[in-house]
Amino acid sequence: MSTPPEARPGRVAVFGDVGGQRDALAAGLVALGADPGTLTLPADLTVVQVGDLMHRGPDSAGVIDLVDRVMTEQPDQWVQLTGNHEALYLGLPQFHWPERLPGPSREVINRWWGTQRLRVAAAVQVPGDAAAWLITHAGLTQGFWRHFLGLPDDGVTAARGLNRLIGNLHEKWLFRPGVMVTESIDLSAGPMWASAPDELIPSWREAALQMPFHQVHGHSSLVDWSTGRALGLPDRVGRFTPDPVLRHTTTTVGERRIVGIDPGHGRRPAPVWEPLVFPDARVVAR
């Protein structure tokens, strides 16, 4: 019997949006020690992928096949989260995208969701941090945390609360849209839709309370990496640290951090980017 991921410290690599770029994803895995031929992950590595595996790039079906194979062969070492692009295939579409997955790939997405292999959140315990890091696709806004989750006071409880909504009477809460769909800013936007510069960061910066855990998200960025231009209103976003090599942004809110890791792949992969890697960490909720 394999050792459960909660008991296995090692490297945890959090990958941002893949966007149909299979070769970029494979190269990122190989750089972390995956076998170049089979992409079998090394024993000390667990991958958390934040969703939006498909669209934009040339090989969405190839990305789905790669992830499905790794999750089948090494289920304890791959945690797959749901993005708004996966959500297109899980119910009533909330937006239009010109590219559609082929039938077999759509079936895989629905199989993952139906068997709860596709999750909404994960939590990672990192040495030196008392609070576990919460990982979602778009981030957990202060309003959603308050009004829909009941103010969990740690990342593990928040991740478990989000995942319990899958298949629940209140599952629709997970798909709660924000400004990207409605064109109206909502500081309670859901974990698949919150805009980092417009909703996620301001919701916590403007709250008169301490964010109880660190966060990692994809979906949107505080920087247009193609131009280097900061996004959002400066007085609402506040100060943050961009890393143009990793294509990560780090915002400090009180004593906690929010790290954005969407590399901004388009029709072509980003020229430089890396996943966020936590050494000697553990996935403690999925």
From TrEMBL:
Gene3D superfamilies: 3.60.21.10. This is Metallophosphoesterase. It comes from Nakamurella multipartita (strain ATCC 700099 / DSM 44233 / CIP 104796 / JCM 9543 / NBRC 105858 / Y-104) (Microsphaera multipartita). Residues 11-139 form the Calcineurin-like phosphoesterase domain. It comes from the Bacteria. GO terms for molecular function: hydrolase activity. InterPro entries: Calcineurin-like_PHP (IPR004843), Metallo-depent_PP-like (IPR029052). Pfam families: Metallophos.
